[in-house]
From TrEMBL:
<dbReference type="Pfam" id="PF02219">
    <property type="entry name" value="MTHFR"/>
</dbReference>
<dbReference type="InterPro" id="IPR029041">
    <property type="entry name" value="FAD-linked_oxidoreductase-like"/>
</dbReference>
<keyword id="KW-0285">Flavoprotein</keyword>
<dbReference type="InterPro" id="IPR003171">
    <property type="entry name" value="Mehydrof_redctse-like"/>
</dbReference>
<keyword id="KW-0560">Oxidoreductase</keyword>
<comment type="similarity">
    <text>Belongs to the methylenetetrahydrofolate reductase family.</text>
</comment>
<keyword id="KW-0274">FAD</keyword>
<comment type="pathway">
    <text>One-carbon metabolism; tetrahydrofolate interconversion.</text>
</comment>
<protein>
    <recommendedName>
        <fullName>Methylenetetrahydrofolate reductase</fullName>
    </recommendedName>
</protein>
Length: 264
C-alpha cells in the first residue's frame, strides 16, 4: 500500500524565498514542480530548484517547453540540468507566445528526443481531463496522449479542471486505452479575478461558483477543499496543486484535505 500523493507547483520568485522555505517545510509535499513562466529566467528556475532540493530536501521537477526552442537549445538546457543533478522533468509543448521554432511542435516529440539523449531522465507529461482546447475530441486527445506516454513518460499531471465527473470519465478512457502510468490531478484554486481572466485567456471553462460571488477568496478555497477531498475519496493517484505562490490560500486548503492509502 502507498499513500496518495500531494505535490505543489510554485513560481521561481526568489524574492519570496522566505515564504517558499516556510510553507514547503510546513507542507512537506512529495515533490515540488517549478513552473517556467516567461517572466522568470532559466537561471532563476535552476536557482529555485537547487534551493528546494538541497536546502529544504524535497524532490524537484522543472518544466521544459519545446515550442520555443530548437534542438541546440534543448541540448544546452539538458546539459545544464544534468550538471545540476536534476533528473525530473515536466516536458511540455508550451503556450504560443509568438516565438515559435519548428523542432518540437508537440510534447511527444520533445519526450522522444530527451529520452534518446539521456535515458536517466524521469519524465512527466501533461494531460487534459476537460479536453485540450485544440483537440477535436476526448478520444483523439487520448490517442495523442498514448503516443506521448509510449515515447517515455513515467507519470502524467493533468491540466486544471473544475468538474470531477469529467476527470473520472477521462481516467476511465485512459484505462480503456491501456495508459497505465500514474496520473496526478492538477488543481488550481481560483481565489482572485486575475486568475479568472487568465483562465479565459487560455480558453478554459470557468467554474460555476465564480459567477456573482462577493467573497471569491473564501468561496474558491472552499470549492477547492471539496473538490480535492472528493478526488481523494475516489482513489486518485495524487493531487498536484497549482499554488501560483498564493501561500495563505494554499495553506488553508492543505490543512483541510485528507489523503488515504491506495489499494494496489
Ligand atoms: N503544469 C503545467 O505547467 C502545465 C502546462 N500545460 C500547458 O498546456 C499546453 C499544451 O502542452 P502539452 O500538453 O505539453 O501539449 P501536447 O503537445 O501534448 O498537446 C497539445 C495539443 O496537440 C495535440 N497533439 C499532440 N500530438 C499530436 C499529433 N501528433 N498530431 C496532431 N495533434 C497532436 C493534442 O491532442 C493537444 O490538443 C502548454 O501550453 C503547456 O504549457 C498543461 C498542463 C500542465
Ligand atoms: N496553458 C497553460 N499554460 C501554463 O503555463 C500552465 C497551464 N496551462 N496549466 C497549469 C499551470 C498553471 N500555471 C500558472 C498559471 C498562472 C500563474 C500566475 O502566476 N498567474 C498570474 C496571473 C496571470 C497573469 O496576469 O499573467 C497571477 O499572478 O496569479 C502561474 C502558473 C502554469 N501552467
Amino acid at each position: 500500500m502507498s499513500k496518495q500523493t500531494l505535490s505543489v507547483e510554485i513560481a521561481p520568485d526568489m524574492l519570496q524565498i522566505k515564504s517558499i522555505r516556510y510553507y514547503l517545510n510546513k507542507w512537506h509535499p512529495d515533490f515540488v514542480s517549478i513552473s517556467n513562466l516567461s517572466r522568470f529566467s532559466f537561471d532563476s528556475i535552476m536557482q529555485c530548484a537547487n534551493y528546494v532540493k538541497k536546502e529544504i530536501n524535497i524532490p524537484v521537477i522543472i518544466h521544459i517547453t519545446g515550442i520555443n526552442r530548437d534542438r541546440n537549445e534543448i541540448d544546452r538546457l539538458l546539459t545544464h540540468v544534468h550538471n545540476n543533478n536534476i533528473h525530473n522533468l515536466l516536458l511540455l509543448r508550451g503556450d504560443n507566445h509568438g516565438h515559435i521554432k519548428n523542432d518540437f511542435p508537440y510534447a511527444s516529440e520533445l519526450v522522444k528526443y530527451v529520452k534518446s539523449k539521456n535515458d536517466e531522465f524521469k519524465i512527466m507529461g501533461a494531460c487534459y481531463p476537460e479536453v485540450h482546447p485544440e483537440a477535436q475530441s476526448l478520444v483523439e486527445d487520448i490517442q495523442h496522449l498514448k503516443t506521448k506516454v509510449n515515447a517515455g513518460c513515467n507519470q502524467l499531471i493533468s491540466q486544471m479542471f473544475f468538474d470531477n465527473q469529467k476527470y473520472y470519465q477521462f481516467i476511465d478512457e485512459t484505462k480503456k486505452q491501456n495508459i497505465n502510468v500514474p496520473i496526478l490531478a492538477g488543481i488550481m484554486p481560483v481565489t482572485e479575478m486575475k486568475t479568472v481572466n487568465w483562465l479565459k485567456k487560455i480558453k478554459m471553462n470557468i467554474p460555476q461558483f465564480i459567477q456573482n460571488n462577493n467573497d471569491l477568496k473564501q468561496a474558491g478555497i472552499n470549492f477547492t477543499i471539496e473538490q480535492i477531498n472528493d478526488l481523494y475519496k475516489n482513489n486518485v493517484d495524487g493531487i498536484h496543486l497549482y499554488t501560483m505562490n498564493n501561500w495563505s490560500a494554499t495553506d488553508e486548503i492543505i490543512k483541510n484535505i485528507k489523503r488515504s492509502e491506495l489499494n494496489e
